[in-house]
């Protein structure tokens, strides 16, 4: 029950209550309008021609809706030297994000399982050491990582980016699964062991079937984080493997001549679409993931 | 005899298996986090330029760093940006959480609206705000069209004010998340104490200032750590919004490190700046992790 709810119930009879309620809604609606305005402006602008943009303002609705800017952003906008739009980079991001998410979540699940159900001396220290890896500023690893990727032949490749995202993602997924499995009663595991189940059987038959909530959270967390990454993409990807965030930044900030704001906005929406869709459909889990990452469990 | 040996062998295998499963991650973290950290710190004591060269020069790079005017601007900016970012996301987050907690209709819709920017990449956020704040067609034109004809808003191209545009965009992106943290905190407060306070006739604002907000202390701490962490790591937002400009007016430690290392080929200096960033963040994160883990053991 909410803290304020009780206050409201107790004071419902008072005449000041209606005014207070009105103020609450007024403030919330104003705040919501401010938060939504950038999105509205982005959608409107992406549907206008440059002439209409010059004639109108941020929030004027498009009168002659055109998808031209979207087509340009997807197919033919110039990014660095080639003028083939964002579509190739969108695929690059998908090729990067899918394996990176699967591997890091899989490893995180196994690590969480070992750290809670197969405890050994120093396991908590080990976990703490891994957790610190979630929080380092990545600038500290950029130089050695660039050389290492070069040495093992993965510089400028999608595989290299997958490796980097798995490495720095596994800290988070381990944290999620460890905090989830710590709450699973050890008796379940003991009983399974009595019945002769081994390491893998306990994992696949006892723990995995009840893990779906934390799997969803981890997948969303990893997907959003990796899809939205810019620093690693900009540092380690070659022209052929650049993710969409890097391409969008190039599209917007290296264009010469007149700035095409409608194409910029369409490009931004294309880049944001996958994570926004996940947020809208799985918002509850998205929030839980954010909180888990922030507050540890 | 042979049977017991076989069993002992199997048991040893069973004991080794969990560690074996853990080993790929341990290897990655040992090398990729701690090994690389050490490597960068060592580099910061060398005269490396384009490639690592292990010619040790003591604290020379740190001296160069702290006398570098660009780094001076970056440090000043991280205090301005970080300070305002932390203050505004906390105030806005707490305010929105209290409003949403008033047993309102359509709570879910409001929460969704305040939180959606968190799903975006900082690059997307930067691109959106570059459009909104652009002098000419952006906010300036909008306010002028509302009738305030002389309204002028050119922060994005004003070296004195550009850093504040980064604050605006950053607060817009993260405030909803801070709201969610505080909302979770508000919903976890023991309602018995509150009812007791009301029985005694305490007015609502006193209940907030004397009971509710003090009870949220752990949430304030978490919010602070998350915000400080995001602020120090901020890189993409500046790159997309201002490119560190005009000039280097919006340089941050993160952008300084990147350009110094990779475009100006001053690897030793870049490593020194990264080391300073790491130390700053560690000074915030390690006490926090320590207290959290200790708390957990007691709990």
Describe this structure in words.
The complex is a heterodimer of chains A (297) and B (299). Chain A is mainly alpha-helical. Chain A has helices spanning 3-11, 16-46, 50-55, 68-76, 87-117, 123-135, 139-151, 158-181, 186-194, 199-207, 212-228, 231-236, 244-253, 261-281, 283-295. In chain A, helix 8 runs antiparallel to helix 11. The radius of gyration of chain A is 24 Å and the shape is globular. With 299 residues, chain B is mainly alpha-helical. The radius of gyration of chain B is 25 Å and the shape is flat. Chain B starts with a helix and ends with a helix. Chain B has one domain (69-298): Orthogonal Bundle (MetI-like fold), CATH 1.10.3720.10. Classes of the chains: A mainly alpha (297), B mainly alpha (299). At the A-B interface, helix 1, helix 2, helix 5, helix 6 and helix 7 of A face helix 1, helix 3, helix 4, helix 5 and helix 6 of B.
Count of beta strands of chain B: 0
Can you identify the CATH class of the largest domain in chain A?
Mainly Alpha
How would you name the oligomeric state of the polypeptide chains in this document? Answer: heterodimer
Describe the sheet with the most strands of chain A: none
Give the CATH topology of the largest domain in chain A: MetI-like fold
Beta-strand percent range of chain B: under 5%
What radius of gyration of chain B results from the CA coordinates? 25 Å
Give the beta-strand count of chain A.
0
Q: What is the level-2 CATH architecture name of the largest domain in chain A?
A: Orthogonal Bundle
Number of helices, counting only DSSP H or I runs of 4 residues or more of chain B = 13
């Amino acid at each position: 029950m909410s803290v304020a709810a009780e206050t409201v119930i107790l004071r419902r009879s008072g005449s000041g209550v209606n005014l207070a309620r009105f103020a609450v809604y007024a403030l919330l609606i104003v705040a919501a309008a401010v938060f939504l305005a950038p999105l509205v402006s982005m959608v409107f602008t992406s549907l206008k021609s440059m002439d209409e943009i010059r004639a109108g303002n941020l929030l004027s609705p498009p009168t002659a809706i055109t998808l031209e800017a979207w087509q340009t952003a997807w197919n033919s906008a110039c990014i660095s030297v080639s003028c083939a739009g964002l579509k190739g980079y969108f695929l690059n991001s998908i090729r990067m994000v899918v394996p990176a998410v699967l591997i890091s979540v899989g490893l995180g699940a196994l690590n969480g399982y070992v750290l809670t159900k197969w405890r050994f001396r120093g396991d908590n220290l080990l976990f703490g050491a891994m957790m610190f890896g979630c929080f380092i500023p990545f600038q500290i690893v950029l130089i050695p990582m660039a050389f290492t990727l070069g040495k093992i032949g993965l510089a400028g490749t999608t595989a290299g980016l997958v490796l980097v995202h798995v490495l720095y993602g596994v800290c988070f997924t381990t944290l999620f699964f460890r905090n989830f499995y710590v709450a699973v009663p050890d008796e379940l595991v003991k009983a399974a062991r009595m019945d002769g189940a081994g390491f893998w059987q306990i994992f696949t038959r006892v723990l995995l079937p009840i893990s779906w909530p934390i799997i969803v959270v981890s997948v969303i967390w990893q997907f959003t984080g990796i899809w939205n990454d810019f620093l690693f993409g900009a540092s380690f990807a070659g022209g052929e493997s650049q993710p969409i965030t890097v391409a969008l930044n190039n599209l917007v900030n290296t264009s010469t001549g007149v700035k095409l704001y409608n194409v910029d906005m369409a490009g931004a929406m294309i880049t944001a679409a996958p994570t926004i869709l996940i947020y809208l459909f799985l918002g509850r889990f998205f929030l839980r993931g954010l909180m888990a990452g922030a507050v540890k469990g | 005899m042979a049977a017991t040996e076989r069993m002992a062998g199997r048991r040893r295998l069973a004991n080794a298996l969990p560690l074996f499963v853990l080993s790929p991650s341990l290897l990655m973290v040992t090398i990729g986090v701690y090994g690389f950290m050490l490597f960068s710190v060592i580099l910061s004591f060398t005269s490396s330029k384009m490639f690592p060269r292990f010619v040790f020069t003591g604290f020379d790079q740190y001296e160069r760093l702290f006398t570098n005017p660009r780094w001076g601007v970056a440090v000043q900016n991280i205090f301005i940006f970080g300070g305002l970012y932390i203050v505004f996301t906390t105030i806005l987050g707490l305010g929105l959480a209290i409003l949403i907690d008033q047993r309102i209709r359509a709570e879910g819709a409001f929460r969704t609206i305040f939180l959606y920017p968190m799903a975006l990449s900082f690059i997307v956020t930067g691109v959106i705000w570059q459009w909104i704040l652009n002098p000419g067609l952006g906010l300036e034109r909008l306010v002028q069209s509302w009738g305030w004809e002389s309204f002028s808003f050119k922060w994005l191209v004003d070296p004195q004010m550009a850093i504040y545009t980064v604050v605006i965009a950053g607060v817009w992106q993260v405030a909803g998340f801070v709201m969610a943290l505080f909302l979770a905190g508000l919903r976890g407060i023991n309602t018995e104490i509150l009812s007791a306070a009301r029985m005694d006739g305490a007015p609502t604002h006193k209940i907030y200032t004397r009971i509710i907000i003090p009870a949220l202390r752990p949430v304030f701490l978490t919010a602070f750590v998350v915000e400080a962490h995001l602020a120090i790591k901020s890189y993409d937002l500046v790159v997309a919004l201002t490119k560190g400009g005009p000039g280097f007016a919006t340089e941050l430690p993160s952008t300084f490190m990147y350009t110094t290392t990779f475009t100006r080929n001053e690897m030793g200096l870049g490593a020194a700046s990264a080391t300073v960033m790491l130390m700053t963040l560690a000074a915030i994160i390690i006490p926090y992790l320590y207290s959290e883990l200790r708390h957990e053991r007691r709990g």
